[in-house]
Amino acid sequence: MQSQQPQSTQEITQHVHQWLSENWDPEADLVQWRTLLAESGWGAAHWPEDYFGKGLSVEVSAAIEDVFAEFGAVGTAQTGVRMLAAATLLEHGNHEQKRQYLRRILTGEDHWCQLFSEPGSGSDLAGATTRADLDGDEYIINGQKVWNTSAHHAHYGLLIARTDWDEAKHKGLSYFILDMHQPGVEVRQLSQMNGHASFNEVFFTDARIPRENLISTAGNGWQVAMTTLAHERRSFDRSRENKKVKQKGRIFVELKKELDISNEPYTWYPQRAGRVDLVMQRAEETGAINDPVQRQEIARLHILSESAKWTAQRAKAAQKAGKPQGPEGSLGKLAASEIARLAARVHTNISANDALLTGPTSVHDGVVAEILVSVPAVSIAGGTDEIQRNIVAERVLGLPKEPRFDEGPFRNVQRNSAAKDTSK
Amino acid sequence: MAFIFTEDQEQFRDSVSRFLKDKSSTVDVRRLMATAQGFDPKVWQQLSQQLGMTGVHMPEELGGAGFGPVEMAIVCEEMGKSLYCGPYFASAVCAANALRLAGDELQQETLLPEIISGEKIACLAVTEDRGMWTDEVFSTTATFSSKAKRTDNGHLLNGRKRFVVDACNADTLIVVANDDQGIGFFVVDATAQGVSITALDSMDPTRKLADVQFTDSPAQRLNNSKPEQLRLLVDIASTALANEMVGGAQTLLDSALSYTQLRFQFGRSIASFQAIKHRLADLLLELELAKSAAYQAAQTLADSALWSANGQIAHGDKVTEHASLAKAAASEVYLHAALECIQMHGGIGFTWENDTHLWFKRAKSSEVFLGTPAEHRERMLTALCAQSTDLRNSA
To answer: pTM (2 decimals)?
Structure first.
């Protein structure tokens, strides 16, 4: 790629506009179009020039995305774990790994999943006991992972597994790219209490990973996982919009298929958050709005959700002004849990018996019932409230840490007796 | 504020904070709360004249600094932090704003400069026999048993006002009363004939309350008085009080944080127990949410045309909704913080020697002053429902 003179954002976006008017075709094949994007560098302009990008800043890259949106042109694949894979590879992968995987991440040809949580290590993620044993030029994988979104569609998994049992907990882990399509990998869908199945369990029985699929070095897996988790947290903060594809053309038909698959696990997420937006409507429909006791609870919910919204805006404004992050920036997740719990209570009181119904006679297609059976997830997924409170107490308020009982060689650390012991 | 304070506002906050740290230590608070007057006139003079706090939100042409509700809220928050004892809330927040809303140009020019400069202290008398805010004040058809009678030489006022903050220190009383035009605001000189002010003993000695009896007392009607100004005054006062309360709650949280880290039991600091840590994290969450609400209420007031106009209430505006929202949220977190702070101090937290009870008492008196949280939740929801009705009607 030829070196470029520094250009202004305006010059760059004009150039992209020109490039799109010469190349964009709504009747193109989705993968072919994205391959062109990857080769041109305009599909991920903030990535390095050597790896399908232009080496531009995130801000300029966002401006380029706006040009795509204005133009109505399809961009590179953005959904799901593939973006976490890309961010992790860009930071920790070697040259061959980046050349091999990044292009097909952008084109959307490969689906990815995350293989981090285990039945025996949820909040304490670094306590993973899935093992990776080096055997010649391959690692042999045994163990079990859980809560793996889209693993049943995935071609590759981002895996943390234990390579050294005599090291301390965090230092014995390694990070791998696992080929999901092999005999030693079994994926089972995991049904939730709300009837959806957004996650999977993944079982490894002598699954194999070639040595060159180790990311970074053996024993550095926790550091690499931190990168993935930081990006996951960022995407958690971003609101998930269910973009409706309306444009016409062959490429949009294919895009819609892709989005339907990637959005499928998330259809119940608005209900998980408590659907505060429905409260006033339901209160008017049922007459609860005229009941002084119900009004108090509805008002409490309104106060909580408005205050949380303003708190998030304060955090955003401070960040934008380049101020150090205040406490308001770390509280969103705990606030979301409180809102969801209170909303479930308010919806129950407003709808009463009708809250139970899920069938054809139910109100609003059973949405109230779905709220009630989905809300319990909010205070668990992505870090439980208890872990969040520890983080807030220790990192924001500066309170002392709990005494630890998991230091020294991991082999000797007391573990979940329910989990199968794989250390021997 | 637009969700972030400007550099100027932060600097102003710093200077207020430094002043109060120096002049309103807990030693000062304890000394002043034991007196009948309850404040230090010298400190009052300094904060009014040197720092301009009493007029920060008042127009420059009347001697104020020309800023608005956000700056007024900053003063209140800082005063809440240090539990400042003095008639700022009664005089600068309640009475001065009442005069701004209901006084005509001449009345403002005559009465406000001395209140803005702190030379005169004013207070606002609203509640009556039961001291309730809901029935008497929040209602759209509020009526008062206090009556103003028109005579050839102005009005004569009869009635009894209760729970009047800082009436004992006031030179001037602004009294809400019924007259032949409905509801009006009346200015009464504290030394005028037939005015009898009786101090009330209160559990919170940092906020001085009094009963005021008027018997044929000469009163001057504020010429732009309108009934709906009462609603706006409650909004302004609730917003200011909400900011004062989140300031107080912050001091309580800081105190709990510092004490639990110093206190060792079972060989470890009690702040290392999750039973304490998690509750402090929850308290921080509740406090930050209430702060956001208090700041937003001040901003909504500042953005509203009401602030400068003479109380023309536009339907569908969010001033009342946000003011009552903030008052309810701040009342709850203040009391919660006080109770947690006492609990986390253990036995020492229940002693007179420990300072926590000073804030606990202010939290309690603030909880009921201007209306309880439940009353404000109802008031907020009523305002919210009125907005959606207005929306539907205009659609």
So the answer is: 0.91
